[in-house]
Amino acid sequence: MILAEAIAQRCGLDLNLVEFDSSGQIISHATDGSWSLSFVPIDDERRRRVGVGPAYYAGVSTYLVRAGMGLANVADVDSPSVRVVGVEGTATLRSAVRSLTNIVPRSVVALDEAVALFVAREVDAIALGRESIQSLLGTVEGAAMVSGHFHKAETAVIVPRGRPAALAATERLMKTLKEDGTIDAALSAYGLAP
Length: 194
What we know:
Strand content: 15-25%
CATH architecture of the largest domain: 3-Layer(aba) Sandwich
Radius of gyration: 18 Å
Number of helices: 9
Protein name: Polar amino acid transport system substrate-binding protein
Pfam families: SBP_bac_3 (PF00497)
InterPro entries: Solute-binding_3/MltF_N
Keywords: Signal
């Protein structure tokens, strides 16, 4: 939110935050006018659907798993006996599907649903970004994070496709925000390394 506030302030615009359950939902609403600028992890599929500005953060995805199952690393999760879930429409789930050779992960609409399945012991692992997993570790009893990752993605600012002037303005603004330290300060405020 800090970065969105900085962009709105620099542009002299009011900030109207629109909430979605996942980055996949943000992308699916790219053509309905519900948002004009957002931030999501980028992959080739998303590059085809939205205008992509400069990346400002690189994150990795791995698995939240049930402690005590002997799942220590990413490779351990790829077993026919492990039930995996991910949030549909996300780059993380698409990468998990590509990387898993012995199982097909289940998809759900929202993270809350995935966590509920995990808590109810209906799944053994959730494919998620590392930062999301770290935020869940203190709140989901019996959860652990495996070592390694199956996906690395840059997060970038995006605009709906077909808006070249907005994309060019966003690119210039992100360059300024990077140079003046605003992006690093926003990442640090959320405990992310710039």
